Amino acid sequence: MFKIDIHTHIIPENLNEIISTFDDKRFLSIKFIDDHNAVLIKDDQDFRKISCNCWHPQERISEFSNSGVDIQILSTIPVLFSYWAKDDEGLQLSEFLNNHIHDVVLNNKKHFIGLGTIPMQNVDLAIKEMDRCINELNFPGIQIGSNVNGENLSEKKFDPIFKHAEKINCSIFVHPWEMMGTSDIKKYWLPWLVGMPAETSRAMCSLIFGGVLEKYPGLKFAFSHGGGSFPFTLGRIDHGYTVRPDLCAVDNSILPSEYLGKFYVDSLVHDENALLFLINQIGHEKIALGSDFPFPLGEKKPGQLIQNLSVSNQMKQRMLAGTAIEWLGLNEQDYIQ
Description:
alpha/beta; TIM Barrel; three-stranded antiparallel beta sheet
């Protein structure tokens, strides 16, 4: 079956070229151990070990081809969003990262499609770079974080970004970052195990409660990690919305569950029963293969969870590639014969 993986991350091997022009220690940099391994540095401390499959296109192609994946959708590592940066530096970094992804795609058109990143801390610059991503770099969409310096995506000042994305048919992949409560739950890797699912639900609820999905119905959102905790706590979210409209229904009077079918999620839930629940809750037509390649919390063999399900091949093919094609506005004839 044809496979398109919508959730993969890449980093430029020459990232330090742009980072060296900035003074802020919060910017991510790379310290190479050897030709195959490196350490990401943030705040002058080791942040994460990575292998060359995180920066080397041919290594990536070799690895994901062995698992049967045909195309990866490339997006930057979320820690590189850097929304806290100065406006001009945020734009420079976004341009650098987007140019890198564009070059990788250009040299490997059969294997990669790119998503851009934009400096959400400045609405005008974010729109400018979004335009460049879609109209010059020929990306079908962008990736954004689940919050912007602690502010929810529903803040009115971000409306022009979403309005413009709808206007130019720009798909949006939402990924958690800067997880709320991280300082309180550092032990046991809880920010990644607990904070990330909650952060994704935060983004989804904010966009629904804030009326963003209602104001811009043409937006094509996809949320990572199966929608985080949102699908599994939707009953509670609906109930809260119903019994406390004075707190929840202040900006949008539509029940949250009414938006099911109006956004996409990836398949990265790590558990067969969870994926079956997600299919029942959201519908297989709104679920796209996503692996979080090449990181350890990702699916080791992308698509295996979908392929092992006791569902029809038609449903499997939809989740393995069809949903991605629809979300990104691709031509199905070019991919699934």
